[in-house]
TrEMBL record:
Name assigned to this protein: Phosphopantetheine-binding protein
InterPro entries to which the protein is assigned, alphabetical: ACP-like_sf, PP-bd_ACP
Protein species of origin: Ideonella lacteola
Residue ranges of every copy of the Carrier domain listed in the record: 11-92
Short name of one Pfam family: PP-binding
Length: 94
């Protein structure tokens, strides 16, 4: 059974993922400036498909589960930091 993270755990994971985005993708902005509900693709944070692949690899390494490029849910998983954090919370092994 999957546990739903508390609001504090969710916010902490969102901050952690924002820091991972900035460091892994060499973004020129502070992690705390990333709105957790802002889209990661296109007009939001401005990531492209290559950035998402790099981010997926880093998330997989850090949290111990595989994010597959052929997963039909990727568009939803990577919609925002919040949706990514929810997915990580449900699947992480570390």
């Amino acid at each position: 059974m999957t546990q739903v993270p508390s609001a504090a755990d969710q916010a902490g994971l969102e901050r952690e993922l924002a820091e991972l985005c900035v460091s892994a993708l060499n973004l020129e902005q502070a992690p705390e400036s990333i709105d957790p509900v802002e889209p990661l693709y296109g007009d939001g944070l401005g990531l492209d498909s290559i950035d998402i692949l790099e981010l997926a690899l880093e998330v997989s390494r850090k949290y111990g589960f595989e994010l597959r490029s052929d997963d039909e849910r990727n568009h939803e998983i990577f919609r925002s930091l919040r949706t990514l954090a929810s997915h990580v919370a449900a699947h992480r092994t570390r």
